[in-house]
């Protein structure tokens, strides 16, 4: 029997733990028939199952702090009068065969796929959904995507129902719309996505370099070439104005060097290092 203990992060049933429990439960109860259904309190349900003369007990709890699903051998006290949801489950799911047990990927949602033989050989297919999500936990009985009944009535904006985009209220007669499930973990496409992102970044860098060259380097080169040709043509006429430009340039550079020296070498030690370098 599995017992859920608090973890350092504050959760009680991590996904990988639930996955292991579901795999064990799947091996033990697939093909079993539901013989008895009990609701011990507001949050806990107990299913007695029979397969090949062997009896198993499946516990589903939506307790806000100790939500869990596991097989158990413990005997529980049951109320004399069954609650409403328990009565409904007995009527519609009692005697049904568990055809499959599954878990939604990356979610604490476990599904028991049921098949109940009706009159004239008709097989009615139902799904018992256990949402193990703390305060937002619930147990629902579905027929296709339609909610027949549920353990707790909640608005869509409460708890885990918000994440699963349930429209309207979780109540009988409302269609339950599931969140699209991610791709199969077995077919991990993260390396392909990383390669695509790297390719996009290379293309973006190349385009950025071309745009910078066209916007800055090319105009500067054109301006320098034009200036050189202009200086060559004007040198024959007279170089007085060119000599004046050189004097101004020397003054500007000297002022810049003096400002850098005051900022970067304010004391004698650093000034000595700068001069030596």
Task: Tell me briefly what this model is.
The chain has helices at 15-29, 84-93, 159-163, 190-235, 240-264, 268-276; strands at 33-39, 44-51, 54-61, 68-71, 97-103, 109-117, 123-131, 138-143, 146-150. The chain has 277 residues and is of the alpha+beta class. It folds into three domains: 15-163, ibrinogen binding protein from staphylococcus aureus fold (Roll); 189-228; 239-277.
Summarize the structure in words.
The chain is elongated. The chain folds into 3 domains: 15-163, ibrinogen binding protein from staphylococcus aureus domain (ibrinogen binding protein from staphylococcus aureus fold, Roll), CATH 2.30.310; 189-228; 239-277. It has 277 residues and is an alpha+beta fold. The model is unreliable at 1-11 and 156-169 (pLDDT under 50). The chain has 6 helices and 9 strands, in the order H-E-E-E-E-H-E-E-E-E-E-H-H-H-H. The strands form 2 sheets. It has a 5-stranded antiparallel β-sheet.
């Amino acid at each position: 029997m599995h017992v859920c203990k608090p973890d350092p992060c504050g959760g009680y049933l991590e996904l990988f733990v639930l996955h292991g429990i579901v795999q064990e439960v799947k091996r033990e109860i697939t093909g079993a028939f539901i013989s008895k259904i009990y609701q011990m309190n507001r949050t806990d349900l107990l299913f007695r199952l029979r397969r090949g003369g062997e009896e198993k007990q499946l516990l589903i709890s939506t307790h806000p702090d100790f939500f869990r699903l596991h097989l158990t051998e413990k005997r529980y006290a049951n109320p004399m009068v069954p609650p409403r949801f328990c009565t409904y489950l007995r009527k519609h799911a009692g005697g049904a065969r568990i055809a499959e047990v599954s878990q939604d990927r990356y979610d604490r949602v476990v599904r028991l796929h049921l098949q109940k033989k009706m009159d004239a050989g008709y097989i009615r297919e139902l799904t018992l959904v256990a949402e193990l999500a703390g305060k937002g936990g619930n147990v629902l009985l579905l027929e296709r995507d339609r909610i027949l009944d549920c353990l707790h009535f909640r608005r869509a904006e409460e708890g885990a129902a918000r994440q699963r985009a349930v429209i309207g209220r979780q109540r009988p007669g409302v269609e339950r719309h599931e969140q699209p499930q991610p791709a199969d973990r077995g077919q991990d496409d993260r390396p392909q996505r990383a390669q695509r992102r790297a390719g996009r970044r290379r293309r973006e860098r190349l385009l950025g370099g071309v745009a910078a060259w066209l916007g800055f380097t090319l105009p500067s080169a054109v301006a320098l070439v034009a200036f050189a040709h202009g200086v060559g043509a004007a040198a024959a006429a007279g170089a007085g104005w060119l000599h004046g430009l050189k004097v101004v340039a020397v003054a500007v550079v000297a002022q810049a060097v003096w400002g850098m020296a005051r900022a970067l070498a304010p004391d004698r030690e650093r000034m000595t290092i700068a001069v030596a370098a």
